[in-house]
Amino acid sequence: MRVLHLTDPHLFADRNGSLRGAVTYDTLQSVIEHYRQGDFAADLIALTGDVIQDDSADAYAHCRDLLSALNLPVFCVPGNHDVRNLMRDVLPDPPFSYCDSLAAGNWLIVGIDSCSAGRAGGKIAERELRRMEETIAASSAEHVMICLHHPPVPMHSKWLDSVGLDNGDEFLARAASAGRVRVAIFGHVHQDYDAGHEGVRLIATPSTCRQFLPRVDDFAVDDSPPAYRCIELRSDGSVSAELIWVKSG
Ligand SMILES: [Fe+2]
What we know:
The longest helix has 14 residues, at 24-37. The protein has a single domain (2-245), classed as Purple Acid Phosphatase, chain A, domain 2 (4-Layer Sandwich), CATH 3.60.21.10. The mean pLDDT is 96. It has helices spanning 24-37, 57-68, 84-90, 126-137, 158-161, 168-177, and strands spanning 2-6, 18-19, 22-23, 44-47, 74-76, 96-98, 101-104, 107-111, 143-147, 181-186, 193-197, 200-204, 211-212, 221-222, 227-233, 239-245. A hairpin with a 5-residue loop joins strand 15 and strand 16. Helix content is 24%, strand content 27%. It has six helices and 16 strands. It is globular, with a radius of gyration of 16 Å. By secondary structure, it is α/β, with parallel strands linked by helices. The strands form four sheets. A six-stranded mixed beta sheet has the order 6-5-4-1-15-16, with helices on one face. It binds fe (ii) ion. Fe (ii) ion (FE2) is lined by residues 8, 10, 50, 79, 81, 188, 190.
């Protein structure tokens, strides 16, 4: 199973809309184009939230139009900048799915909503944690990947950790107790992260637009370019993940 991980595109209704100097429609397009020209042939796109920036249905429509061109299922979870109702309305049908689960080979992929209404930080509702556990328990898959928006661990960045995931420890404990969760992928942090945590690999992919400077107390933009990640879920339960930076020009 090969997964193209895209996250935090922050699109606007206006295609010229920009976020801290990046025209987000153009940077997502450049990421898609870079993927198309590479050798990695994904079976699925995982889109881990902050799809839009301006609360508009038109921004979701841009996402739909850009990603539909790849002819791949798009497995979506919301981020704090998303408007859940709009997201479900505009991305309701295949190839898009919203907080769904999918079995492929001996892998199960589960998308969960980590957002907490009205806040940048997240908290996974008990209902979502239970859905994760029940979905895993009902599956015969040997290996599981979880997709969510917020980071389950601190990023050692004061400002970013103040808008992190309230119950990351609980999520990790319950994911680990399922015994089959090999990897969790997320966005929100607009930077690279790839580390193991008690047998679960945790991977953040930088945004398709602007990045944040890692490990700083106060917010700062990083000059790193847009990015995406190619993830391979192997049948033996191992995971390979390659981060690709998309330099312009
Ligand atoms: Fe974001």
